[in-house]
Amino acid sequence: MRVLVVGSGGREHALCWAIAASPLCDALYCAPGNPGIAAEAQCVPLAATDLDGILDFCRRERLDFVVVGPEAPLVAGLVDRLEAHGIAAFGPSAATAALEGSKGFTKDLCAKYGIPTAAYRRFTDPGTAKAYVRARGAPIVVKADGLAAGKGVTVAMTLAEAEAAIEDALIANRFGAAGAEVVIEEFLEGEEASFFALTDGKTALPLASAQDHKRVGDGDTGPNTGGMGAYSPAPCVIPEIEAEVMARIIRPTLAAMAKEGRPYKGVLYAGLMLTREGPKLIEYNVRFGDPECQVLLPRLKSDLLPALLAARDGVLDGFDLRWRDEAALCVVMAAKGYPDNPVRGSEIKGLDAAQAAEPSVLIFHAGTKREGGRLVADGGRVLNFVGTGTTLDEARARAYAAIAQIDWPQGFYRRDIGWRALKA
After folding, report:
1. pLDDT tier at 116 (50, 70, 90 boundaries)?
2. Residue 223 gets which letter from DSSP?
3. In this structure, what DSSP letter does residue 137 have?
4. Of 9, 44, 124, 290, which one's alpha carbon is 20 to 30 angstroms from that of 73?
5. In the predicted model, is pLDDT for residue 424 greater than 70?
């Protein structure tokens, strides 16, 4: 098969790494890719949101299958565009990608079909929104309705923080059209977990569990990010929890989407809060998580490509996936200033030394580019270091041993990835 992966981050590097290993894959391309992905695939200088350019490339190169990594092209309808021209693609249609493209849509769907989630209200007027948070009190959660690259969520511990978040979205227009409406939710207490299911619209196949670290600083301090690290499996997602999530959240959502005329195909990523009342949905993403994908795929024994094809073709019924018992842990190295104003253009050295020190560690590129012979930072989250081991402690030690070899003064990382699982 001739395969294209769309995207340029650490998630897409992990997808390319896994797909390149498939005996079904004869040629692999990535648009636009990055310097790390270039070792696995031929990079094509097309933006992930250049729907026309991607379609033209697929037709010209006679590609068989396209795997769409990020949410923006999914919400924009890339899968619809490709499928309309006879090109098989993995990922949800634009109509079903609304599960991530609009938090309000998802909350309304949950309310209509009895899917457990936080109580909420939707607002476009800042005065009304502020009056609501004053009446409810803090802590409270304020979310931009649309896509905000992981930066549109404020877990406000004070009323002042909540009001500032409302002003950012509805008055200062910080998130553009994505913040023209906000969803304000009750604050849920418990442990967060990431739950993934592969689905063909009818059958849902649970994937391995993971936990990520959204806050930028050690001890879960500072603003929310797209994710500073992750590990798999998540010890808190015991088999009983998985069964409850599938029965009360995942399968009801797929049934609801089908009933609404929007059958969902692709990977469904549920951000969960494990509360005293049971698991509740925080929000849905319509693609593999980043950095969760980077810890899921190294644990997957099965060939990824046939699984993605089966989801697209509607034949997941009877399909099975095998997982390694070992743990995986990813540490994200980011550019100083992330998540607000990451510094770009600084040189990164020591990757060869890191790989030599820990040969088993996978180094996925998330935001890098080549300038001459130099590797430089070109984004907020820049490198992902994934250690594996028989225990999470072992995986963690390997990841941090590799990252210690990196010579990049303008980079930083959290030093406590995995603390929830290891605190006991």
Report:
1. very high
2. E
3. -
4. 124
5. no
